[in-house]
């Protein structure tokens, strides 16, 4: 909708590359150089979006159903699922409209389509920004629960969590609206890149500090049992692997999209950057994959949530 050909994805105004060829292979850019290009079909986008939509809707419904999960931590997890749900829902909506237009089953004026595209873009942008914010909020919540355990319930209260959630949603909508309106301004793109880097640094610092504290705690327990070396090394290795997976998935799924924004600022006409621009749809697909992975990392590890989810699924049948 925003651009022509197979690059018709939300936020397509950021990508001015030519239409992609429909397979993984080498494609020529504007200067004749050969580029590795991955084409993401509408069917794949639709499938990823539907999987994420159902998965995150189940998380939201499960947390809403069980009052035992109405705590600040699960409030942030629920909002993360809602953000991912909106990312997926907007993707499903746009892909469905595209397929209907191509099949001739839907006829609409260009002005109407443009307005619809703008609305979907704002929903997508705001949900992406809020998703990043809630990932950071979850990291902060876990950090406080570990380093200020005795004061946690007085620091992180449900009213404060709700105010934080409201502030995140309002800020996300406002900034996403500005982003769509002024997407061609360098300052806007730089703000988005700085925001992503700030979230990445925040999460890395907090989780690394939490891992260090957990290793110290495990080492203290090991000393009491005269088994310092094996327990400490085993726990540290497991924690390092978990941390690497958590931050690695975050960077792998979000990094390429913000690299795309960075290169638009640094080298919009360079042939090598043009090759990267051709994979814009792939970068958006990775963000949707992150929306599928988030519930597995942050929600489904909870035994209480899994038990409630089973009840929801059982009653629905």
TrEMBL record:
<comment type="function">
    <text>Receptor for MSH (alpha, beta and gamma) and ACTH. The activity of this receptor is mediated by G proteins which activate adenylate cyclase. Mediates melanogenesis, the production of eumelanin (black/brown) and phaeomelanin (red/yellow), via regulation of cAMP signaling in melanocytes.</text>
</comment>
<dbReference type="Pfam" id="PF00001">
    <property type="entry name" value="7tm_1"/>
</dbReference>
<feature type="domain" description="G-protein coupled receptors family 1 profile">
    <location>
        <begin position="55"/>
        <end position="298"/>
    </location>
</feature>
<keyword id="KW-0675">Receptor</keyword>
<keyword id="KW-0449">Lipoprotein</keyword>
<comment type="similarity">
    <text>Belongs to the G-protein coupled receptor 1 family.</text>
</comment>
<keyword id="KW-0807">Transducer</keyword>
<protein>
    <recommendedName>
        <fullName>Melanocyte-stimulating hormone receptor</fullName>
    </recommendedName>
</protein>
<dbReference type="GO" id="GO:0005886">
    <property type="term" value="C:plasma membrane"/>
</dbReference>
<keyword id="KW-0472">Membrane</keyword>
<dbReference type="GO" id="GO:0007189">
    <property type="term" value="P:adenylate cyclase-activating G protein-coupled receptor signaling pathway"/>
</dbReference>
<dbReference type="InterPro" id="IPR000761">
    <property type="entry name" value="MSH_rcpt"/>
</dbReference>
<keyword id="KW-0812">Transmembrane</keyword>
<keyword id="KW-1003">Cell membrane</keyword>
<keyword id="KW-0297">G-protein coupled receptor</keyword>
<keyword id="KW-0564">Palmitate</keyword>
<comment type="subunit">
    <text>Interacts with MGRN1, but does not undergo MGRN1-mediated ubiquitination; this interaction competes with GNAS-binding and thus inhibits agonist-induced cAMP production. Interacts with OPN3; the interaction results in a decrease in MC1R-mediated cAMP signaling and ultimately a decrease in melanin production in melanocytes.</text>
</comment>
<dbReference type="GO" id="GO:0010468">
    <property type="term" value="P:regulation of gene expression"/>
</dbReference>
<feature type="transmembrane region" description="Helical">
    <location>
        <begin position="279"/>
        <end position="300"/>
    </location>
</feature>
<feature type="transmembrane region" description="Helical">
    <location>
        <begin position="161"/>
        <end position="181"/>
    </location>
</feature>
<dbReference type="InterPro" id="IPR001671">
    <property type="entry name" value="Melcrt_ACTH_rcpt"/>
</dbReference>
<feature type="transmembrane region" description="Helical">
    <location>
        <begin position="187"/>
        <end position="214"/>
    </location>
</feature>
<dbReference type="InterPro" id="IPR017452">
    <property type="entry name" value="GPCR_Rhodpsn_7TM"/>
</dbReference>
<keyword id="KW-0325">Glycoprotein</keyword>
<keyword id="KW-1133">Transmembrane helix</keyword>
<feature type="transmembrane region" description="Helical">
    <location>
        <begin position="235"/>
        <end position="259"/>
    </location>
</feature>
<dbReference type="GO" id="GO:0004980">
    <property type="term" value="F:melanocyte-stimulating hormone receptor activity"/>
</dbReference>
<dbReference type="InterPro" id="IPR000276">
    <property type="entry name" value="GPCR_Rhodpsn"/>
</dbReference>
